[in-house]
Amino acid sequence: LSKLSSLLGCNSVEQKIYVELNNTVPCVRLLNATHQIGCQSSISGDTGVIHVLESEEDLEWPLSKGPNPPYMVLLESSLFTRSIMMKMKNESNRVAGVAVVVPNTSPPEFSPHTTCPNENTGVYSDNYGPNLAHCNTTVWNPRGNGLSYEEFDFPVFSLKEDNETEFIKQCYLDHNRAVNGSAPQYPLCAMQLFSHMHAVTNTPTCMRRNDINFSINPEMVCDPLGDYNVWGSIRPYNDTVFGHKENESVVIAAARLDSRAFFWEVSTGAEGSVSGFVTLLAAAQALREVTHEAPPTRNILFAFFQGETFDYIGSSRMVYDMENGKFVIDLDNIHSVLEIGQVALHSGNNLFLHSDPVSRRNNTVNDVKNLVNNLQSSTAGLGFLLVEPNVSQPLPPSSLQRFLRAQPIPGIVLADHESAFNNRYYESFYDNAANLNLTYPSDLSPEEQLEFVTHTAESLTDVATVVARALYKQAGGDESRVNTIKADPKIVTQMLYGFLVSSNNSWFQAVMAPELKNILKPSPPEYYVGVAMSSTPTRLVQYLLANLTGAATNLTQSQCQKPDELPNESRQMYSYLWVQGIVPPNSTERDSFCVRASVRLTKAVSPAFELGEYASKDYSTWTESRWKFIKARIFLVASRDLEVGKYIHLFLLILAVLFTSLLVTYFISTKADVLFSSTREPASAAY
């Protein structure tokens, strides 16, 4: 109790009773066409006596033996397993909630995702490669335990391994721990978690509730997951002219931007997404000079898709727009697709070229072979090989599958795994910088770390060089210039630092707009797609792609904002971004400038919400529930006997007050003529 009191620095009664926990992250509710997943508390929050779980056998205490249910179970990440969580789910009447301590070090493996990601919205189905559907031949994520797709009717929060967590454990040891199997004595240390979700059942239900407008300010209960795709091309397109382009052939180079974890907005996606899009950004920069000096015959379009974790939101939207004349090209303009998947964890000297065995049986076989040859011939002098898998197997989960659903397009997915993922932490909070072995000498300052070229950066630089060379060849570029194309290891290492260590660094500050500087934090961005639109990763990739592929201009800030008023400038052909620039030596003012680039944002919201088909089987239908607030706190709770006695005393006091008031009322009413009488003077008569 004394330790609780020592943390209280406020005079309010509430803060003398409760200790608020600040470093917590909840599991929230998500919904799709058929069901709901995730976690929630009751509307008033859920409260339980804290029990620190020490082993799976120790579950007996909160689930059956403990005398003071319900329990709030605190467990280390090593015990955050499917077996333990499902046992607590099945006995949820004795479990008020779960708090998971996320350590600073990673376990041997952990993936709360499914074993077959996006299996129902890819290209493989009963009508297309049925023997390849549902991971029948290759289980891509065998470590997946599926926890992220379970529903828990109690709150589940994560805690950092810090002083707050140590305080909770000490509170448990001081008040709750059973000694020799005997019940602990009151007062007991308890925790209360608030994470009540407004949406229920599924997406059709919550979207229907959104449309019920009984008030001036109707309360929304859920929102579609979505953001923006980022794309750019080496030759600009008129942003107001959509549909098919005659005599236009385009090579698409793609990567995904998003990731997820069990807990809301703690996904770092180092291998799952960052390795791929950093490689593609570096390849785009490597192509800038050569494509200006010797333009290839085909255009190259760089596409960065958002929401791919949730049934390919971004890629399915771009394909939908292409099919319906809402994009600057259509599917018939696509020559081929090269997608960069997970590429940072290759063991040995091989990366793998995955293709679709079904489409390769038809006329696209030669086009796929050409792409394979262009990739394999681009590795000269780089110390690794690109090989095709030894067995016939489907494409791994990839955006390319959504293009193939619409049309047989030649394509390759470049990845570091031949079959199952090398990533031991797929779609979990452990897929972070440490997973890529992104380490720095301890004596380096943050600015020195930003410039320090790690082994991971060197490796991805080589991959980016191969990608850039292959794209240039695939687009019909000048063969004599191919070996001059090289990615810049300094740029790669700066991007890895900014995306996986700290986004608030001098380079990211220089390439961002002044009004966006507040999105830069001394930590990595969150890669969960969310519902807010224009997330931090989207904005960072937009500005980086513009700076790496565009050109600095002499336009002033006002001209940059209104370029159409100038000759030879057109917002229809280019985007114009005013960026902060660097701080020159011996100066305190930034050298800001205007970047002109053919980089655009387009919606990455599922077509299901455009069409109003909330139960669609063809498109993603994922939504996120709304909530009022998220909160966690601990306090000491008195015994039930004392609580009951307190309520009895309160009840008796209320009865006494009520009885007294009735007596007073009765007395006043019976004596009203005496108490309230007044002598009237006779009225004067007037005649």
From TrEMBL:
PANTHER family on file: NICASTRIN
InterPro entries hit by this protein: Ncstrn_small, Nicastrin
Record-level GO cellular component terms: plasma membrane
Keywords, sorted A to Z: Glycoprotein, Membrane, Notch signaling pathway, Signal, Transmembrane, Transmembrane helix
Pfam families: Ncstrn_small (PF18266), Nicastrin (PF05450)
Transmembrane segments: 647-668
Family: Belongs to the nicastrin family.
Domain annotation Nicastrin small lobe: ranges: 26-199
GO biological process: Notch receptor processing; Notch signaling pathway; protein processing
Name the UniProt record assigns to this protein: Nicastrin
Taxonomic path: Eukaryota, Metazoa, Chordata, Craniata, Vertebrata
Subcellular location: Membrane
Membrane topology type: Single-pass type I membrane protein
Originating organism: Oncorhynchus kisutch
